[in-house]
Write a structure and sequence with these properties.
With 306 residues, the protein is mainly alpha-helical. The chain is 54% helix and 5% strand. The protein contains nine helices and six strands. The strands form three sheets. Strands 1-2 form a two-stranded antiparallel ribbon. The chain has a two-stranded antiparallel sheet with strand order 3-4. Helix 2 packs antiparallel against helix 3. The radius of gyration is 26 Å and the shape is globular. It starts with 12 loop residues before the first strand and ends in a 5-residue tail after the last helix. 38% of the residues are buried.
Length: 306
């Protein structure tokens, strides 16, 4: 019998002189670039100016990264706050620890600010973003692979994931060589499949007016809720008997379904151009008055000073 498995990388970074480059950070950056490029193409096809998405991303990306890190630290306090802890590790994003729900929530706030400044309708931008966002998340999960994280319980499946027994995340009490469910791979497949399904749906029906955003929340939320149930890493917060991330994922899925239903009832077909109309221009003065250049006419129509 041939035993197969997925080996984990033995390196998670490389050095260029004094600079250390982490593969996790590279995967995140590649995902951001792909999401920005694809979203720009989709939004430009609807009339937005080239470069608009980049202007919005300058707000959404940094705020999203801060939010993702904040959510992770708040939901894993004992990993960062204990006797003798190096508090600077709170900011060590390159070592892993960006919670996607925090990134989505804070990133949406940043995107809304960017849309307001760029004169773009937020829902139009969000609908254009979704395929690129799913691909960006898929690349981010590849970064988890390099960090040997995001895996489930032990398995004998031929695609079981090898995790070094010296890895801090290796569950205590299990023998070295134990294989685990590769949850990072499952989520990559789920996200890429979501892009394919959305593109196929868009060929048949309009997914504007926030319906693509609703699809994302429903698709990713339902898939993430299932994957969270398979995770074995310790969770410090529970609500209604579920891990906090399961609660948030289910809430996102329900919210996405509600958004699709409401927007389908309220709006039919495509939404208008994504660009907000500018302020109304003042009407020109009456031609007979504004174009008058005869001093005598001007004197006749201008009241004498008292």
């Amino acid at each position: 019998m041939i035993h197969t498995s997925i080996p984990s990388p033995q390196i998670s970074y490389f050095d260029i002189g004094p600079i250390r480059i982490h593969f996790y950070a590279l995967c995140i950056l590649v995902g951001i670039v792909i999401a920005t490029w694809l979203s720009s193409r989709r939004l430009s096809q609807r009339g937005a100016k080239p470069g608009t998405v980049l202007d919005i991303a300058l707000w959404a990306v940094p705020i999203g990264i801060v939010g993702g890190r904040l959510y992770h630290v708040v939901t894993h306090p004992t990993d960062y706050f204990y006797a003798g802890a190096n508090l600077w590790n709170v900011f060590a994003v390159w070592e892993g620890g960006l919670a996607i729900f925090g990134s989505i929530l804070f990133g949406a706030v940043g995107a809304y600010i960017g849309c307001r400044r760029a004169g773009i309708r937020f829902l139009s931008f969000a609908d254009a973003l979704i395929p690129g966002l799913l691909l960006a998340q898929a690349f981010g999960r590849l970064g988890n692979y390099f960090n040997q994280e995001l895996f489930g319980g032990p398995t004998t499946l031929p695609w079981g994931l090898q995790i070094d027994a010296t890895n801090p995340a290796f569950p205590p009490g299990l023998p070295a060589g134990t294989l685990f469910q590769p949850l990072f791979l499952y989520e990559i497949i789920w996200n890429v499949l979501g892009v394919i399904v959305l593109v196929l749906i868009e060929r048949r029906v309009s997914m504007h007016w926030g319906r693509a955003l609703g699809f994302y929340l429903l698709w990713y939320g339902s898939g993430r809720a299932f994957l969270e149930s398979l995770r074995i890493d310790p969770t410090e917060f529970y609500f209604l008997g579920l891990k906090i991330n399961e609660d948030v994922a289910l809430l996102a899925a329900v919210g996405g379904l509600a958004l699709i239903i409401v927007q389908t009832v309220r709006h039919r077909g495509q939404d208008p151009e994504p660009i907000h109309p500018g302020p109304a221009e003042p009407e020109p003065l009456d031609a007979d008055v504004s174009d008058s250049s005869d001093p005598a006419e001007a004197a006749e129509t201008t009241p004498a000073e008292s």
